[in-house]
Write a sequence for this structure.
């Protein structure tokens, strides 16, 4: 087999493999919530509004003001926290405002869940909040309103306050 | 059968389309990296904020390494545009942009993925052999294997197909509910206005309008899937695609996706060169003006210039038909990149006989002159009506979707910048031309 034939075979193999992989990615995207690699354009028109709550160690559920809250640290200093400080992309930044979900609602809920866990791990001065809770109100393509409650993982406050 | 496939891998042709696509891709890569530089300047290092890594094993960069990756993308983008060490630049860009894309799950978008695929496909293509420093250095002739043309076009077809299929399979999309719901963005913007035009309010509350729009979107994507492949629909499909992607870009900022999709249209342009003959009178300053600009903008070498001593500009089109006056200019314009969007629909008037002339012969069989098929005043009236209608159409499709976006000056700068790059490239790589 000469070089020319190898080259021809190589090109045909590359093209076939490329197209098959692309087709496989497109098909798998139909079954994935984030539609990644599937070229779903403007997949759905979902809107949502989220409100952030803090579950305190005394069991009270306290709503934050547009994702912002303040606490007294161990030394008596006032420390402020803000959802927007940590979460900035994918349209997740602004709470308490009706907005469009990027890509789709399922993937937005997935990232909101990750974001809750991310934020709860980054508020060492807050020794009151056990858990962050996000109440999400959403509707898909002009459908009925639906509700979801997302909770961050719980914190062991005693460990933090030491 | 096997031989046909083997011949396909060996087929060669002009590479100018591939070179244009390369320039678009380089510009988009640069633009994409620049967006991350701005993001870094505004928000700082991405890992200092919320992000979602893909896999535990995937190496996460330090701040310096991250900046290096973004800088590599920008440098590679620039090298791809000018075509210096093109293949290396493409491979480095592919590695850097690929690594960057998988740093954060929600950085994924179809346009970034498409950019990555385009980098991969161009890195195995001879795109550096035309309109590049590499080509100038090695004195290459801009001719080479064209199998990557087909592969990139197939990729674009898959995208249209995937997009159309996903919408057709989705009950919400099919029923028109998705677009109907998106009207709320415009409605929200309108609620901030003091006075809303009645026609707009009526349009936005009309469900039939949105159902029609949905059918139009689905029909357009299906048409583009096949229309760009068929020789008799190709030019029309390119125009439809320009309007379609332009409409999307005005209404929703998808940047790389619009530009790269349109960039693949450079590969759809027929490889045949100098199939139209544009006749001008060298004694006439007005004729020389059109001939000079036709030559300057004829980046794909579509038009052959010839002189005659008639006071009228004339063109012989690919089908052998003769046209004169402004129709000749429009037909020439429809063969060029820059005026295509405007010139091409005007040429449809030729189907009504506007601007068309028939050569007549005398009793001895010699060509005696050209006989117009339609009177001048009637032809002008038809032209004015069409132009007004077309400008109105362009106004509607750009104004309505941009209402809720507001005017975003930055994104509208991209197009002139890109054409400036094209023009500079063409000026730097002149082809042999007749002196006008």
């Amino acid at each position: 087999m000469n070089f020319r034939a190898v080259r021809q075979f190589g090109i045909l193999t590359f093209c076939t493999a490329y197209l098959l992989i692309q087709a496989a990615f497109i098909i798998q995207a139909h079954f994935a919530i984030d539609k990644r690699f599937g070229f779903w354009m403007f997949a759905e028109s979902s809107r949502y509004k989220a409100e952030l709550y803090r579950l305190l160690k005394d069991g009270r559920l306290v709503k934050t003001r547009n994702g912002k809250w303040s606490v007294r640290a161990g030394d008596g200093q006032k420390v402020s926290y803000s959802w927007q400080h940590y979460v900035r992309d994918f349209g997740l930044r602004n709470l308490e405002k009706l907005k469009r979900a990027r890509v789709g609602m399922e993937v937005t809920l997935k990232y909101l869940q990750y974001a809750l866990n991310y934020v709860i791990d980054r508020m060492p001065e807050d020794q009151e909040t056990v858990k962050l809770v996000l109440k999400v109100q959403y509707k898909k393509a002009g459908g009925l309103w639906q509700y979801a409650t997302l909770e961050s993982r719980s914190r062991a406050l005693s460990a933090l306050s030491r | 059968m096997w031989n046909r496939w083997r011949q396909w891998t060996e087929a060669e042709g002009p590479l100018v389309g591939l070179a244009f696509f390369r320039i678009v891709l380089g510009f988009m890569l640069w633009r994409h990296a620049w967006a991350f530089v701005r993001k870094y300047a505004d928000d700082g290092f991405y890992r200092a904020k919320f992000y979602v890594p893909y896999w535990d094993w995937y190496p996460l960069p330090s701040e310096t390494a991250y900046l290096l990756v973004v800088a590599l993308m920008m440098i590679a983008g620039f090298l791809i545009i000018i075509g210096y060490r093109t293949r290396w630049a493409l491979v480095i860009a592919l590695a850097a942009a690929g690594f960057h894309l998988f740093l954060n799950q929600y950085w994924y978008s179809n346009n970034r993925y498409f950019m990555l695929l385009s980098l991969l496909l161009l890195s195995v293509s001879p795109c550096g052999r035309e309109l590049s420093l590499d080509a100038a250095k090695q004195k290459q002739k801009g001719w080479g294997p064209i199998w990557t043309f087909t592969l990139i076009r197939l990729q674009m077809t898959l995208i249209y197909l995937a997009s159309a299929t996903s919408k057709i399979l989705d009950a919400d999309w099919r029923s028109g509910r998705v677009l109907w719901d998106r009207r709320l963005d415009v409605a929200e913007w309108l609620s901030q206005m003091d006075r809303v035009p009645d026609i707009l309010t009526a349009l936005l509350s009309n469900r039939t309008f949105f159902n029609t729009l949905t059918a139009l979107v689905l029909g357009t994507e299906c048409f583009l899937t096949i229309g760009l492949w068929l020789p008799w629909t190709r030019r029309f499909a390119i125009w439809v695609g320009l309007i379609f992607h332009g409409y999307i870009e005005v209404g929703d900022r998808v940047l790389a996706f619009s530009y790269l999709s349109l960039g693949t249209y450079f590969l759809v342009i027929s490889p045949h060169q100098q199939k139209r003959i544009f006749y001008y009178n060298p004694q006439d300053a007005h004729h020389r003006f059109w001939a000079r600009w036709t030559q300057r903008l004829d980046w794909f070498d579509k038009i052959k210039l010839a002189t005659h001593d008639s006071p009228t500009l004339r063109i012989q089109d690919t089908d052998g038909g003769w046209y004169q006056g402004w129709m000749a200019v429009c037909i020439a314009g429809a063969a060029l990149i820059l005026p295509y969007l405007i010139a091409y629909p005007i040429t449809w008037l030729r189907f009504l006989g506007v601007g068309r002339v028939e050569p007549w012969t005398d009793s001895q069989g010699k060509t005696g002159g050209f006989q117009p098929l339609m009177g001048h005043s009637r032809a002008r009236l038809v032209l004015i009506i069409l132009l007004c209608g077309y400008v109105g159409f362009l106004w509607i499709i750009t104004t309505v979707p941009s209402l809720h976006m507001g005017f975003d000056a930055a994104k509208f700068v991209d197009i002139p910048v890109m054409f400036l790059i094209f023009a500079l490239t063409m000026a730097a790589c002149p082809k042999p031309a007749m002196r006008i």
Remarks:
- The longest strand of chain B covers residues 356-361.
